[in-house]
Amino acid sequence: MFRKRIKIHQVSEVEPLVYLDASKLGKPWHKLPALLNDNFEILDAKLSIYFLKKLRVNVSLAALNFLPGKDHRPAQVYSTGYGHVGFDIERPLLLRILNDYYGLNDDTQHHSSTDHEQTEITLPVTKTEERLKNKIAQDIISLVLDNTLIGVDIQPEQDHGAIIHQWAGCIQLEMDGYQQGCFRLLLDNALVDRLLQRLRSGSVAQSPGAVLRPPAALEHLVSHMPVRLNGKLTGMTITVAQMAEIRPGDIIPIALNEPVPVFVNKAQILTASIAQERGKLFFCDFNDNLIEKHHD
What we know:
Elements: H1 32-37, H2 40-54, E1 60-68, E2 76-79, E3 84-89, H3 91-101, H4 113-121, H5 127-144, H6 147-150, E4 157-158, E5 169-176, E6 183-187, H7 189-200, H8 215-223, E7 230-231, H9 240-244, E8 260-264, E9 267-277, E10 280-287
Antiparallel strand pairs: 1-5, 2-3, 2-4, 3-6, 5-6, 7-8, 8-9, 9-10
Helix pairs in contact: 3-4
């Protein structure tokens, strides 16, 4: 007679349990993250352009995740005509965007910005915060849930009368440049079912209702992608012996470059002048004579 051995595991060694939802059986919920990631690059470009043009911030999309629905009552609810979507943004992120938009976080306040933001979080929500949150909500919803993903163009409008305690799914967006906080788009059952419909009919690009982007639209999207420019204000060459002789209080004579060389990564592509406005430095008077070629 054989005896069966039973091995006992600690709770910390066991993988977290996954509870099956009867409403999800037979539906390809596990493919929804891949559906979003297939549109990651396009969405990254659109969000970067939006933040640069509308909010004057140079950021990019760091992560895009689809999470199961949850109870999230404080979210602002918007009606799209194809279902309801809730928008939620963590307050530290909203305050960072607000301060960057009005230029309140300069280099002179860099060391005290964290303490300043912690103090702001404890303060009551202002009308300016609410207006900015409403504006960002409608724009982000329209950018993420666009024709490419949903299959239709939606016009989100805030619905003050809708009360939704449990959402079917959650799209979470994290931005590179803002380490604290994230956006969340909470989808009801109608919008999640529409995403699942897109999966059943094939990929987003191959679905019958999808509208292919014309070459002019793709060219417009690529030509308007944000590029980070770096300028070299000044530079000097000294020996190691001269550098070792430098003491606190010494004055080092330097000359500012005019015009200033402008780089993308390590390649110089332009020259420009420097202008000052509201305590910040900006490039102006670009000149691309570096790329001109002379032939004999």
